[in-house]
């Protein structure tokens, strides 16, 4: 039997997820302010980037988990989790712009063009911006359901780009365990969508 929650229970779950989602950011603030980080740039960049990937995977996992378990209330968490994906990607980007380039946009863009892994990550971040900007109910109504859905399918492009960015970033360190894990998770989550789409297509044609 599928787990069903009342609106009040969903509200409590959303509040708990919100607070838990802020804990990595609180760690960044505390570590920087207290001097606990020996290399603040590396810590902020690394932690924020990894948490952006965690939330990206969780966002992509909502639909498969809902379909496999019947927990339809999970959809009500997807928007918030998706916005936390953007939030940590924004922190990751600001760390790069601030600590690496001291808000020198020209120098940042030159670095983006020169280093492929930064270019790929920058593209993924730019593609996240319209998704975050259109996450409200008002924007869904303004765009219309179908156009909004098509726009938010950019997440299927952003996922592989984010994994490629992470892989290339780790290449110099020869540490591929985490990129492989993230890549496998994203690949499975996208493959499930392809499988369900292909299986549903003949039924649509017969109808």
UniProtKB/TrEMBL annotation:
List the InterPro entries hit by this protein, alphabetically.
Answer: Fe3_Rdtase_TM_dom, MsrQ-like
What would be an example GO MF term here? metal ion binding
* Note accompanying the cofactor annotation: Binds 1 heme b (iron(II)-protoporphyrin IX) group per subunit.
User: Per the record, GO CC terms?
Assistant: plasma membrane
One Pfam family hit: Ferric_reduct
UniProt topology in membrane: Multi-pass membrane protein
Cofactor (UniProt): heme b; FMN
| Superkingdom | Bacteria
- Residue ranges of the Ferric oxidoreductase domain? 49-159
Its GO biological process terms? protein repair
Q: Alphabetically list the UniProt keywords.
A: Cell membrane, Electron transport, Flavoprotein, FMN, Heme, Iron, Membrane, Metal-binding, Transmembrane, Transmembrane helix, Transport
Residue stretches spanning the membrane: 51-68, 80-99, 119-138, 150-168, 180-196
Compartment(s) where it occurs, according to its Swiss-Prot or TrEMBL record: Cell membrane; Membrane
State the similarity comment. Belongs to the MsrQ family.
Description of how the protein assembles with itself and partners? Heterodimer of a catalytic subunit (MsrP) and a heme-binding subunit (MsrQ).
Stated role: Part of the MsrPQ system that repairs oxidized periplasmic proteins containing methionine sulfoxide residues (Met-O), using respiratory chain electrons. Thus protects these proteins from oxidative-stress damage caused by reactive species of oxygen and chlorine generated by the host defense mechanisms. MsrPQ is essential for the maintenance of envelope integrity under bleach stress, rescuing a wide series of structurally unrelated periplasmic proteins from methionine oxidation.
Q: What protein name does the entry list?
A: Protein-methionine-sulfoxide reductase heme-binding subunit MsrQ
What organism is listed for this UniProt entry? Massilia arenae
């Amino acid at each position: 039997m599928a787990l069903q929650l009342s609106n009040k229970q969903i509200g409590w779950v959303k509040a708990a997820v919100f607070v838990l989602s802020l804990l990595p950011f609180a760690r960044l603030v505390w570590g920087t302010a207290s001097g606990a980080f020996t290399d603040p740039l590396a810590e902020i960049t690394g932690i924020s980037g990894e948490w952006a990937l965690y939330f990206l995977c969780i966002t992509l996992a909502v639909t498969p988990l809902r379909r496999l378990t019947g927990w339809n209330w999970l959809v009500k968490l997807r928007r918030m989790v998706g916005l936390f994906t953007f939030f940590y990607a924004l922190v990751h980007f600001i760390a790069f712009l601030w600590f690496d380039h001291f808000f020198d946009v020209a120098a940042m863009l030159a670095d983006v063009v020169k280093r492929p892994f930064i270019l790929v990550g920058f593209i993924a971040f730019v593609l996240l911006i319209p998704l975050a900007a259109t996450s409200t109910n008002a924007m869904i109504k303004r765009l219309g359901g179908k156009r909004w859905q098509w726009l938010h399918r950019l997440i299927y492009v952003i996922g592989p780009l984010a994994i490629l960015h992470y892989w290339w970033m780790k290449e110099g360190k020869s540490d591929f365990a985490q990129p492989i894990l993230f890549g496998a998770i994203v690949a499975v989550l996208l493959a499930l969508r392809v499988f369900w789409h292909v299986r549903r297509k003949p039924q649509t044609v017969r109808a």
